[in-house]
């Protein structure tokens, strides 16, 4: 099936216009963690072998918020950082990228989270987190900006905020507010096993809110993990074990090979865009930014397979551009950059 560049361009231009004129109706609110990623200055080494690190703002939900804004969409971020230099820096980065940061809170008693991440020579990512506890884990329900959540056409979140209290209860409360106000719930589990008490705790925690989501994005590895080792390429596995009755759209990312999509009416695959990869950090978040930007301008996009495929090729291109630079937020593309690379 051919992919139309014009279709993606029209969709994104429409979104940019609506973002300016009707920010309330096209707003995507992202909830969760924002932190500092430290990425080695050279590739293909372990954290212990890295000669030096480059500081980069990160955290999956924050990455998505910035990605949407860079693509011409309207976004906001809700979360907590430390009342420290890194926390102020992160809040400023959101503002500089035209992300509404009015939902950010500062904790005077906890530090902003840090994460060291590298892509080893064997292609595996290695993580080391400093959260003991970090400020993002301490967001309280009383600190939520309910009015901001209620303005969202899409409410996006991950699973890291489900690991400990009080953030878990705050996360659930925010989802409830969003659902009650008619927002589409978008979920990217973003599995980070080192942060969970155990693999089983991670599986249960991620699945505990699975049936609430309208849109879910997962990776091949996450399918294998969540299904207990089943074949991540088997469509029957995906439909039988992961596609719940209320789900509108399930997306499976496959790195440079593109993505698969599943709806109640149809499913298929959209090829990836080949580039020279430098650092895969943030690629999945860039993909999510791309698809949510398109969805925010057309909330029924998932019902039209042609439009959905165009939007997913746009999202795949977002991910491809992001792996050509180090770090997450610094590498997220603009709409113009994506349209230049987008296959005809």
Give a brief rundown of this model.
Helix content is 37%, strand content 21%.
What does this structure look like?
Its EC number is 2.7.1.4. The protein is an alpha/beta fold and 344 residues long. 37% of the residues lie in helices and 21% in strands. A 9-stranded mixed β-sheet has the order 5-4-1-8-9-10-11-12-13, sandwiched between helices. A 4-stranded mixed β-sheet has the order 3-2-6-7. A hairpin with a 5-residue loop joins strand 6 and strand 7 (125-130). Helix 1 packs across helix 10 (283-297) and helix 11 (305-322) crosses helix 12 (335-341). The longest helix has 18 residues, at 305-322. It starts with a helix and ends with a helix.
Helix-strand layout with pairing:
Elements: H1 5-21, H2 23-26, E1 27-31, E2 35-40, E3 53-58, H3 60-70, E4 74-82, H4 85-96, E5 100-107, E6 114-119, E7 125-130, H5 146-150, E8 154-157, H6 167-180, E9 184-187, H7 199-207, E10 215-219, H8 220-226, H9 235-241, E11 249-253, E12 259-262, E13 267-270, H10 283-297, H11 305-322, H12 335-341
Parallel strand pairs: 1-4, 1-8, 2-6, 4-5, 8-9, 9-10, 10-11
Antiparallel strand pairs: 2-3, 6-7, 11-12, 12-13
Helix pairs in contact: 1-10, 1-11, 3-10, 10-11, 11-12
Keywords:
single chain, 344 residues, alpha/beta, 9-stranded mixed sheet, 12 helices, 13 strands, Ribokinase/fructokinase protein
């Amino acid at each position: 099936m051919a992919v139309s560049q014009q279709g993606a361009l029209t969709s994104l231009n429409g979104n940019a216009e609506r973002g300016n004129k009707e920010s309330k109706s096209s707003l995507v609110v992202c909830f969760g963690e924002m932190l500092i990623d430290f990425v080695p200055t050279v590739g293909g080494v372990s954290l212990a072998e890295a000669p030096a690190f480059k500081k980069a703002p990160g955290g999956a939900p924050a990455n998505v918020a910035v990605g949407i804004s860079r693509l011409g969409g309207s976004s906001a971020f809700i979360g907590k950082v430390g009342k420290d230099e890194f926390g102020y820096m992160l809040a400023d980065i959101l503002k500089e990228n035209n992300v509404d940061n009015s939902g950010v809170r500062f904790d005077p008693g906890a530090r902003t989270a840090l994460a060291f991440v590298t892509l080893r020579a064997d292609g595996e990512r290695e993580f080391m987190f400093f959260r003991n506890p970090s400020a993002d884990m301490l967001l309280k329900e009383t600190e939520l900006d309910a009015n901001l959540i209620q303005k969202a056409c899409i409410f996006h979140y991950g699973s890291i905020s489900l690991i400990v209290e009080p953030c878990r209860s705050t996360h659930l409360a925010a989802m409830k507010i969003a659902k009650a106000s008619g927002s589409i719930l978008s979920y990217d589990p973003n599995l980070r096993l080192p942060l969970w008490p155990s693999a089983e705790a991670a599986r249960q925690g991620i699945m505990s809110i699975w049936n609430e989501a309208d849109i879910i994005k997962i990776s091949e590895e996450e399918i294998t993990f969540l299904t207990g080792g089943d074949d991540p390429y088997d469509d029957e596995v995906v439909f039988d074990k992961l596609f719940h009755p209320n789900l509108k759209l399930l997306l499976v990312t496959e790195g440079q090979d593109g993505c698969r999509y599943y709806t109640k009416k149809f499913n298929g695959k959209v090829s990836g865009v080949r580039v020279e990869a430098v650092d895969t950090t943030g690629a999945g978040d860039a993909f999510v930014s791309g698809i949510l930007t398109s969805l925010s301008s057309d909330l029924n996009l998932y019902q039209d397979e042609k439009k959905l495929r165009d939007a997913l090729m746009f999202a795949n291109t977002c991910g491809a551009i992001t792996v050509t630079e180090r770090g997450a937020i610094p590498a997220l593309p603009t709409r113009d950059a994506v349209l230049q690379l987008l296959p005809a």
